[in-house]
Design a protein that fits this description.
The chain is an alpha/beta fold and 495 residues long. It has two domains: 215 residues, Aldolase class I (TIM Barrel); 143 residues, 3-Layer(aba) Sandwich (Rossmann fold). The protein has an eight-stranded parallel β-sheet with strand order 7-6-5-4-3-2-1-8. Helix 9 runs antiparallel to helix 17, helix 12 crosses helix 13 and helix 16 crosses helix 17. Bound molecules: NADP nicotinamide-adenine-dinucleotide phosphate (NAP). The site of NADP nicotinamide-adenine-dinucleotide phosphate has 25 residues, from helix 13 and helix 16.
Length: 495
């Protein structure tokens, strides 16, 4: 279950949001009375409540807005208990002063906005001993390992426990807490009104993670990178899992470079079965893999890991997806992959995507030139693949039948930029942009206008995700649903 927190300044707004949430399917709502700016009229908030509530009056020192008298706060909490609300949230020091009464359940809570304390287990024991129906722990994640400590505690607890790590290192724990046994998780009414750092919106919990589908035996998948906040992979993969009714959940993990090794050691404790890998880990992950496919060795980068028993197996679906997309484009203009042998190609950029596509083009016999803003990077790539290199300033002078943008130039919000120029596109040639947000970048629009056949980043993105999905599940991916979800997300929906 998802408990949605409402923190508004006016009673009317709280009541309206509560109703709206129930219309959207919410089954439990936390009323954060500390946000009310006028004297609290509890009756107005709960007498006609459309679903069960948790009443919380969070003090400033615990991350709330209540700065008044502690005795008055406790009077308010007691009156909520007397009024028979379903849950009341009590901090450790307030719990003893507010005894159990009637049917109201007691959530005994603990917050630490700076760290996840070393003595988490002892803290949990103390809270559990305070006549708790539910223990709630919300602590700041300073390393990805804090999530593992928190979730293991939730799993082993004798009393129902909601354990959440705050901050962007903790996002996964908000989604996975139910997988480890928490009776509910917390979400916010709207993504722009977080009541705690890293909180996800109710809509996102529902639409992206389908939280209520998660069970104790759900298999966990995820994407690792840094940053990771804007990744669309959770949306795409969860859409596919849902479409095929698979008991699997996919979450984002922000993993700073220095934590990669530790995270991979923790992978099995998190229930992880597979990972998508993005910047900055695509190369660094290789030394932690026990088996890799040929392309990973050739490219020097992996974007997919499957955990099988003790094995960590690496793949590069970027490479296969890019080559499949390109071959689709060749077919559309009446050519075959064989024709690549007589084609001149230009790759803009020398990062991870460029390496995968360059490897594919060279293997297929194309005459390849690479160029990058930092000449040394392009030179290194050219040396590795034995292809040509040209300085960035001279990229428009290279004669190319196929030009591939492997830089982020043109990506949202810089949609009026392009790394190439209209006149430089060869009419009748192929223009391939790896940028997928937006799909119709300036590069793609100009290429089309110039009479090129285009391959968009969406095409590649969906194909690489579909290949990952197949490796994760053994099933053919529901590509149409994945594509639709991606298009919706890149056009309008912001959670
Ligand atoms: P990366 O490893 O960080 O490499 C980025 C490359 O772009 C570098 O060569 C960098 O040049 C160059 N670059 C960055 N900013 C630039 C600018 N303002 N002007 C010119 N060049 C610039 O990133 P990546 O993983 O290769 O990703 C590159 C793009 O591919 C991204 O837009 C990403 O979203 C996209 N991508 C798409 C898919 C897909 O499935 N559609 C898959 C993977 C990646 P330097 O030489 O100076 O470092």
């Amino acid at each position: 279950m998802i408990c949605v927190s409402i923190g508004r300044g006016r009673h009317k707004q709280v009541v309206a949001e509560h109703r709206h949430l129930v219309e959207q399917g919410a089954q439990l709502v936390e009323l954060r009375l500390d946000y009310l700016r006028s004297r609290v009229d509890l009756n107005a908030l709960i007498s006609q409540r459309p679903c069960p509530v948790v009443v919380t009056v969070r003090r400033h020192q615990d991350g709330g807005l209540y700065r008044g008298d502690e005795d008055q706060r406790r009077v308010l909490l007691r009156s909520a208990v007397v009024a028979g609300v379903e849950y009341v949230d009590l901090e450790e020091d307030a719990a003893a002063a507010i005894p159990r009464y009637g049917r109201t359940k007691r959530i005994i809570s603990y917050h630490d906005f700076r760290k996840t304390p070393d003595d988490l287990v002892e803290i949990h024991q103390r809270l559990a001993a305070l006549d708790a129906d539910v223990v709630k722990l919300a602590t700041m994640a300073n390393t990805p390992h804090d999530n593992v400590r928190m979730l293991q505690l939730v799993k082993q607890a004798q009393i129902p426990t909601v354990g959440i790590c705050m901050g962007d290192l903790g996002t996964a724990s908000r989604v996975l807490t139910g997988r480890f046994g928490a009776p509910f998780t917390y979400a916010t009414f709207h993504h722009e009104r977080q009541l705690a750092p890293g909180q996800l919106s109710y809509q996102e919990m529902k639409d992206v993670y389908d939280y209520d589908r998660i069970r104790g035996d759900s298999e966990v998948y995820g994407v690792i990178g840094d940053p990771i906040g804007h990744s669309l992979s959770p949306l795409i993969h969860n859409t596919a899992f849902r479409a095929q009714n698979l008991n699997k959940i996919y979450v984002p993990f922000r993993i700073p470079k220095e934590n990669l090794e530790e995270f991979l050691r923790d992978a099995r404790d998190l229930g992880l079965r597979g990972l998508s890998v993005t910047i900055p880990h695509k190369e660094a992950i290789i030394k932690h893999l026990t088996r890799v496919d040929t392309a990973v060795n050739g490219i020097g980068a992996a974007n997919t890991v499957v955990f099988e028993g003790e094995q960590n197996i690496g793949y590069n679906t970027d490479y296969r997806a890019a080559m499949d997309s390109l071959e689709g484009a060749l077919k559309a203009i009446g050519k075959t992959p064989e024709d690549l042998k007589s084609a001149a190609a230009l790759i803009l950029g020398a990062g991870g995507a460029a390496r995968a596509i360059a490897y594919g083009l060279v293997r297929r016999g194309a005459t390849l030139t690479v160029t990058s803003r930092t000449f040394e990077n392009a030179e290194r790539l050219a040396q590795r693949l034995q292809c040509r290199v040209t300085p960035w300033e001279r990229r428009l002078t290279v004669e190319a039948d196929i030009v591939v943008n492997c830089t982020p130039v043109g990506m949202h919000p810089e949609v009026n930029e392009s790394p190439y120029e209209f006149q430089a596109f060869k009419p009748g040639g192929i223009a391939f942009d790896t940028v997928y947000n937006p799909e119709n970048t300036l590069f793609i629009k100009q290429a089309r206008e110039r009479g090129c056949h285009v391959v968009t980043g969406v095409e590649m993105f969906i194909r690489q995700a579909a290949l990952q999905y197949q490796l994760f599940t053994g099933h053919e991916a529901p590509v149409a649903q994945m594509r639709q979800a991606l298009k919706r997300a890149t056009s309008a929906v912001k959670y």
